[in-house]
Design goal:
Helix content is 34%, strand content 19%. It is of the alpha/beta class. The strands form five sheets. A six-stranded parallel beta sheet has the order 8-7-9-10-12-11, with helices on both faces. Helix 8 crosses helix 11 and helix 12 (423-441) packs across helix 13. The chain binds thiamine diphosphate and magnesium ion (MG).
Length: 623
């Protein structure tokens, strides 16, 4: 008797199914008895208009390539296929999806459709076996934003799936977001049948060309490819280069039996990245660190998982710790050494401590113009990636090394450092900033809530274990400045700076950490781009609390027009009542028009088990 694993297609001979599948580890319960010796007879039908060949008992209702009706198909002949040879073997998609899982990918965001059905079916089987989570989004741009945010939060790649043509091109923005912020991500795009590729068939886009500038590694899966190896390489490149791995799946290749059915794995393919810095770099850095009287540490997103070591060093140096915007929350704002965000979304506290320091020690930051790290102050820069070192200007001591290891070496090497304890000065500057914030919060033009007030309240209301996904706009700058972080990770579209990121990013965070409170913070303009995703959140019962700053305006653009002394033009927004809109999408909606209503609405939204939206009516000028 033969038994087939319904997850991976492995065939087991014996009276009973095996306890676990030796290929994919699925339990005995997923094995099905195999029918033997049957043959299926299917006919081949050729489209008289475009030449597309269809296999099946009947011609298709309409040609999937040129759209003509069934009457335009002529019979070409019959094909006999033994049932065993079709069902016994794992398909190319089965092998590749199993390989993807072996590399640790556990979540796929995407949209199923004509040119990815074979691949989607392999994903479905793994979802049913409990090995994968699939989130069907409403726009592929949300799939890649969500996968990018998943990578930003976890450091692990998630996959985004699309059909050929428009589905694939819709993925591009989120993939650019991941690429520019150095996040591993996998893009799986369907493609039309290879037999019709070339002349410009329906949904034919040259995906290799379209993705060539966003993907660090991109390949088309062919019938004769080494399929497991293609997936191995897509993920090896995505993970090690922290970039986009891309695979193009022509329609007919997805369901053919895999010539080599053994899936791949990361075993022996990923080095330990715990690289120690060269001894000379460490001693050059220590020489400066020991002598500095007023050092300051700046941490960026790259230090996200290494903060214990960085904080230990800061404690020994008694020095201020400043973050980039992407690194907001890497140190709590109430930490005696925490000085908040630097740069355009920053505070006067961080600016003071950077500018008054005699040595900057920068961990995992990329020196974007928005952060504005002062190039005139002597700098030690630590990063695992040598290209990032001294990228925008020369630094005094570029140190290539894993951040945790390097920070520990600095800590161990410090001998009677001259640095003075700046805790008191930090507390005094923070008190000044608190007064300044209170003054700003006191302003009221009678045109809606004030951003300083909104974020002061949110600082109290958003739980410590939350993940916060933000968008782009004045609302985001206000968050950077006014929100007092208790260490919540912040997910943002950093270098790409794309509006619309916030809500899909919250979906990605929810998929990665469903038990944590997930908060999305967006403006009305940004959310407008992905409003449909509230239905996705409703469908999957995502526990996302969305704070929507509604100022009826592309506020940041109005600000820019005013600053450039131009006429404010076409930045006004005609909005629905978002709290009512939430209700019809399966979310709980709240509307806040007065400061006094804020706390209760946010508390109720956070307490709601499922998606909730709090629309806060804000004054566009009080930012
Ligand atoms: C995809 C994309 N399109 C356009 C922009 C330019 N842009 C930056 S902020 C912004 C306005 C955002 O408006 P809103 O979400 O309402 O935030 P507000 O500034 O009002 O707080 C725009 C259009 C962008 N960054 N990304
Ligand atoms: Mg707005």
């Amino acid at each position: 008797m033969a038994w087939k694993c319904t997850v991976c297609g492995y065939i087991h001979e014996g009276d009973e199914p095996p306890e676990t599948c030796p290929v994919c580890s699925a339990p005995a319960s997923v094995f099905e008895k195999e029918a033997a010796g049957e043959v299926t007879v299917s006919k081949q039908w050729k489209c008289k208009v475009c030449g597309y060949v269809h296999e099946g008992p009947e011609p298709p209702e309409t040609c999937p390539v040129c759209g003509v009706p069934a009457s335009e198909f002529e019979e070409e002949g019959a094909v006999e296929t033994p049932v065993e040879s079709v069902t016994e073997e794992r398909t190319v998609s089965d092998v590749m999806v199993q390989t993807m899982i072996n590399w640790g990918v556990d979540t796929v965001f995407g949209m199923v459709g004509h040119s990815n059905l074979g691949l989607a079916d392999a994903i479905r089987k793994q979802c049913e076996a409990g090995k994968l989570k699939y989130i069907g989004i409403r726009h592929e741009g949300a799939a890649s934003f969500a996968a990018s945010a998943y990578g930003k939060l976890t450091g692990k790649p998630a996959a985004s799936l699309s059909i050929a043509g428009p589905g694939a091109t819709n993925l591009l923005t989120g993939l650019w977001d991941a690429r520019m912020d150095r996040v591993p991500i996998l893009a799986l795009t369907g493609q039309i049948d290879t037999q019709v590729l070339g002349p410009g068939a329906f949904q034919e886009v040259d995906l290799a060309a379209a993705f060539s500038s966003v993907a660090c590694w991109s390949q088309t899966v062919l019938e004769t490819s080494h399929h497991a190896e293609l997936m191995n390489l897509a993920l090896k490149n995505a993970i090690l280069q922290r970039d986009v791995g891309h695979l193009i799946f022509p329609n007919e290749v997805q369901t053919i039996p895999a010539p080599l059915p053994t899936p791949g794995s990361p075993e022996g393919r990923l080095p330990d990245l715990g690289t120690s810095p060269p001894a000379t770099s460490v001693s050059q850095a220590l020489e400066r660190l020991n002598k500095a009287e007023r050092p300051a540490i700046i941490v960026g997103h790259g230090a996200r998982f290494k903060m214990d070591a960085v904080k230990k060093l800061a404690e020994k140096l008694n020095c201020p710790v400043i973050t980039t915007f992407k690194g907001k929350g890497l140190i709590r704002d109430d930490d005696p050494l925490g000085c908040g965000v630097l740069g355009r979304s920053g505070t006067l506290v961080s600016a003071h401590f950077m500018n008054s320091s005699d040595l900057l020690v920068v961990f995992g930051a990329s020196f974007s113009q928005h952060t504005g790290i002062n190039p005139d102050i002597p700098t030690i820069q630590v990063d695992l990636d040598p290209i990032t070192l001294g990228k925008f200007h020369a630094v005094d001591v570029p140190v290539v090394g894993e951040i945790g290891i390097t920070a520990n070496l600095f800590f161990q090497g410090l001998e009677n450092p001259k640095s003075i304890d700046r805790r008191e000065e930090i507390a005094a500057k923070k008190a000044e900033w608190k007064t300044e914030k209170e003054n700003r919060a006191a302003k009221d033009n009678g045109k809606g809530l004030n951003a300083a007030t909104v974020f002061a309240q949110l600082s109290e209301l958003i739980p410590e274990d939350a993940v916060i996904a933000v968008d782009v706009g004045n609302n985001t700058y206000s968050f950077g400045r006014y929100f007092e972080s208790k260490g919540q990770p912040v997910l943002m579209s950093g270098y790409l700076g794309s509006i619309g990121f916030g809500y899909p990013a919250a979906m990605g965070a929810w998929a990665a950490a469903p038990d944590r409170p997930i908060v999305a913070l967006t403006g009305d303009g940004g959310f407008g781009q992905y409003m449909g995703e509230l239905c996705t959140a409703g469908k999957y019962g995502m526990n996302i609390t969305h704070i929507l700053i509604n100022n009826h305006e592309l506020g940041k653009i109005s600000t820019e027009q005013k600053m450039a002394e131009m006429t404010v033009w076409e930045t006004g927004l005609h909005n629905p009542d978002f709290s009512e809109y939430a209700g019809i999408c399966g979310a709980k909606g709240f509307r806040v028009e007065k400061t006094e209503e804020m706390a209760e609405a946010v508390k109720s939204a956070l307490a709601h088990d499922g998606p909730a939206l709090v629309e806060v009516m804000c004054d566009p000028d009080l930012i």
